[in-house]
Amino acid sequence: MRARTLYFAVCILQFAFPARAAAPPLPAVHAKARSHYSSVLMWHDVVPKTKEVWFDTTAAELEEQLQHIKRRGLTPVTLDRLADHLETGASIPKGAVVLTFDDNTTGLYSHLFPILKRYRWPAVLFVHTGYVGVKTGKDHCTWEQLREMERSGLVKAYPHTVTHPADLRLMKDAALEKEMVQGRRSMEKHLGGPRRYFSYSNGFYDERVARAALKAGYRLAITEDWGAAQRSPNLMMVRRYSMHKRAKQAVEDTARAMKR
After folding, report:
1. Which of 2, 38, 215, 252 could serve as a FRET partner for 242 with CA atoms 20 to 30 Å apart?
2. 3-state secondary structure of 197
């Protein structure tokens, strides 16, 4: 009698609380890409001489870092090319790097953009769309400045949320979706074309946040976890070296891998 009662109790619980199907895995890095070593490199604002915050980079410091990249034989590529490589195994140069700059401050237009034109190297700007053309602690590039940089064929801008939340992991689902979806839609409206790459504000994410990025329509989502892009856990958790903390290591890790 007791066993029968227990059996019926289990059945009722299973009916009331059905087991959830396991979530499908996040999109994987292609097997053909795993033998390569490419690096995504991260900077923030570029300033003329005096840093306002520790993660500013002076124009002279950036020049020195870009010269190091050049001397070591690394090849800056577009984020589209890296995405094709990671997603499909398409070819990519040995020692490929992607130059990325977060937060859309006006130093990127005034100081970075002229440097990129001299090097003829591609770069990515990750933009929090709610602050385009707005002064917060710093001035931010306008939509017209972003369009001008994109017309050069060297710069491409992608979303970095709408309002740059301190920690996406702490946000409720609806607010998280708004940051990811509205950021992409705003950029597509003002700049045209699909904007399918995203970087997590302050680098904070977890699996729930990564799944929200996938649901929002992103092809790649970029973290601040250092290491080769090809060693990333999946396409929603792509690794990126901070050039504020690991500038020399990022270049040397990638250069050494070219010899293998």
Report:
1. 215
2. strand
- pLDDT of 260 reads 80
Domains parsed from the chain with CATH numbers: 28-257 (3.20.20.370)
Which pTM does this prediction carry?
Answer: 0.91
What span, in angstroms and rounded, lies between the C-alpha atoms of 138 and 226? 27
In Å, what is the CA distance from 42 to each residue of 1, 4, 26, 188, 203? 66, 62, 24, 23, 11
Q: Band of the pLDDT at 208, cuts 50, 70, 90?
A: very high
Continuous segment of H or E residues that includes residue 156: strand 155-159
Q: What is the rounded CA–CA span in Å between residue 16 and residue 35?
A: 48
Neighbour-count burial of 37, counting CB atoms closer than 10 A to its CB (0-12 exposed, 13-18 middle, 19+ buried): buried
Q: Which amino acid is at 21?
A: A
